[in-house]
Write a structure and sequence with these properties.
The chain contains 11 helices and 10 strands. It is an alpha/beta fold. Helix 2 packs across helix 11, helix 7 (156-166) runs parallel beside helix 8 (190-199) and helix 10 (232-248) runs antiparallel to helix 11.
């Protein structure tokens, strides 16, 4: 049975680790992540962006995630990541999805509160948990793009007000990370993260973790992060492995063969990220 992210993250918060969230796109990426999680005995979150849902279809992708819970023994949440409206996630909630993110961070604070509050009321009726976001990360995440100069770090007092007014289950915070790859080492505001953690008690989420050092991710966990999101660092080795396969086998036509090294490459990255988050061995 699929879990809510709230269930998984509360345990992580209590025990001082983070649950890794991996963006997945097809059968091979789901299998790679799940095999890594099973071998490492880690709870895991499979995330689908709006583009992934449009490409695969709600029913098909939900079935992949649901089947993962029946095939593997570790706790799994299926999360609809970076959706901007309740209407966008309703089809998946009706299918049985138990975790959504409503990203209205591009809107005014008042509008963000209004959109997320409505989503919380509906999602909770379906038994699902909701992640909100306060602050803006530079870079692109599927349908959401923030240019340099438009980014904004999360204000701790605003975060407290946001949580109180929306009743959101988890909160993504902006402390200096970015979506995509970094041109240089990110400068994370750990003091800001500590203040946010002291101000609110719900699980906190770190977006834009691809390229962030192990030391910084561990420090974020120490200061209150309970979920760490990974996307770009999975896509790159997956694509590179397919390109390398075709260079060595230019006449190849069997998807099972050229997807095999790609799946292996992604799995290796997933294992590293699981250990980075200290979630290995944390599955019941």
């Amino acid at each position: 049975m699929l879990k809510t992210t709230k269930e998984l993250l509360r345990d992580a918060q209590e025990k001082g680790y983070a649950v890794p969230q991996f963006n997945v796109y097809n059968l091979e990426t789901v299998l790679a992540v799940m095999e890594a999680a099973e071998e490492e005995r880690s709870p895991v979150i499979l995330a689908a962006t709006p583009g992934t849902r449009r490409n695969a279809g709600d029913a098909f992708f939900y079935a992949l995630a649901d089947t993962a819970t029946q095939t593997f023994s570790v706790p799994v949440a299926y999360h609809l990541d970076h959706h901007t409206s309740l209407e966008a996630v309703l089809p998946s909630l009706k299918l049985g999805a138990k975790s959504i993110m409503i990203d209205a961070s591009m809107e005014t604070f008042k509008t963000n509160v209004s959109i997320v509050k409505e989503a919380v009321n509906v999602a909770h009726a379906y038994g699902a948990s909701v992640e909100g976001e306060l602050g803006k990360l530079i870079g692109s995440e599927d349908d959401v793009t923030v240019k340099e100069g438009e980014d904004a770090l999360t204000d701790p007092e605003r975060a407290r007000e946001f949580v109180e007014r929306t009743n959101v289950d988890t909160l993504a915070v902006a402390i200096g990370t970015a979506h995509g790859l970094y041109a240089s080492e990110p400068n994370l505001d750990f003091e800001r993260l500590k203040k946010i953690r002291e101000t609110i008690d719900i699980p906190l989420v770190l977006h834009g973790a691809s390229g962030v050092s192990k030391e910084d991710v561990r420090k974020c966990i120490e200061y209150g992060i309970s979920k760490v999101n990974f996307a770009t660092e999975l896509k790159i080795p997956f694509a590179e492995a397919i390109r390398d396969y075709f260079k060595a086998h230019p006449d190849a036509v069997d998807p099972r063969k050229y997807f095999a090294p790609a799946k292996k490459a992604l799995k290796e990255v997933a294992v590293k990220k699981i250990r980075m988050c200290k979630s290995d061995g944390m599955a019941p």
